[in-house]
TrEMBL record:
UniProt xrefs under PANTHER family: PTS-DEPENDENT DIHYDROXYACETONE KINASE OPERON REGULATORY PROTEIN-RELATED, TRANSCRIPTIONAL REGULATORY PROTEIN
PROSITE patterns: RESPONSE_REGULATORY, SIGMA54_INTERACT_3, SIGMA54_INTERACT_4
Ranges of residues in domain Sigma-54 factor interaction: 142-371
Domain Response regulatory: 5-119
Top-level division of the source organism's lineage: Bacteria
Full protein name: Sigma-54 dependent transcriptional regulator
UniProt entry tagged with the keyword Transcription regulation: yes
Residues modified to 4-aspartylphosphate: 54
UniProt keywords, alphabetically: ATP-binding, DNA-binding, Nucleotide-binding, Phosphoprotein, Transcription, Transcription regulation
Pfam families assigned: AAA_lid_14 (PF25601), HTH_8 (PF02954), Response_reg (PF00072), Sigma54_activat (PF00158)
Amino acid sequence: MNKPRVLLTEDSPSLAAMYQAYLRDESIQLEQVSSGKETLDYLERQWPDVLLLDLMLPDMDGMDILQRIYEQGLNCSVVIITAHGSVDKAVDAMRFGASDFLSKPFDAKRLKVTLANTLKIRRLNQLVHGAHEPNRENYFDFVGNSLSMQRVYRVIESAANSKATIFVTGESGTGKELCASAVHQASGRKDAPFIAINCAAIPKDLMESEIFGHLKGAFTGAVHERKGAAQMANSGTLFLDEICEMDLELQSKLLRFIQTGTFQPVGSSQTEKVDVRFVCATNRDPLEEVRLGRFREDLYYRLHVIPLHLPPLRERGDDVLQIAQHILMRISEEEQSRFCSFDQSAQQVLLHYDWPGNVRQLENVIRNTVVLNDGEQITPVMFPAPLSQVQPVDTMARTLTAELKSTESAVVKHVDPLWKQERRAIEQAIDFCDGNIPKAASLLEVSPSTLYRKLQSWDN
């Protein structure tokens, strides 16, 4: 598992097979894709240590992929491979961060030496800069290595030691409190308190006391003096979740607290000063709340210093499998269950469900499955609704095959030309997969590049 990960992007099956043979005995994890779309899909899920990138791809120019890697700052070394080599191409490739440049044809020795040098330089750079591997499988309490989450990790790491307020947005269940906790743990305040308040869970008339504290007798029921979250978070981090739920009157007091670092406990005339780092979050559109008059514009701009958006689970690719496995092991231990994995069909169900409730819903589904079933491996039939109605890919493929066979046995009065039948089958498969061409190609058992070429020829 510690071997460097190498991704080969080459659309020619014969050349791809030859390069794989060249590298068969190398101590690497080698994977191969055949199109630009497949490459970008791969990069969305994880980053290879080295990308061997052919420039002439069936669906896009490899330079566009290189430029995207460069602009997004992905920690991925790129070696350009092309039969159309030139000095200009080499210069362009190097300007966008390519590590080396190979002109076809080349032999096994040249490929091995180039790859070895690229990996060596990569290791030396990490040693010199004291860097740990940025392509993280997890980060503090987060689990997942998708590209969208790597961006989140980078923002947290860059902003952690600043005192600037971080404004976290994202759907319910995406892990906004985990994000705030990660900011705190990555900062110099990690040994001080982390205090979290859910503004939607506390009655409005108690919220001021919850944040600023109160003196004995300040209001009915205040039988003891109580410290508020602001004082408890002194020298640490105060996380205000669902900030858009806060009452407008209290928003003005919060604004003053953020500006001056001072506050008055309820019932007190004395001003107290604290040093607090603010992180706030909402599952709403804060600018829309400002427009509707429910959130102060001046408070929005005071808080919205470093925006950080958490992607929904449906946009995190294979992260759902990593998170599901992590949750399963924890829940199995809590419930003293024998479950330890998901079978292939169950994994496909997890991947193809939309997860409107995000990670929170995933955890509830897994707990339900573990409590109500028994075994070592979870299968699709064990899932509660609505996951129990989701068909895994292999089932969909069998259904599609059965439908095609049933049409063969029907009485046919008219036979379309073969190319029309082929086009109809391809378009149905793509529609069946909601426009995901690599997935449709998998169902049809052809290369994605084949579908891209046929689609392009039909457009022409």
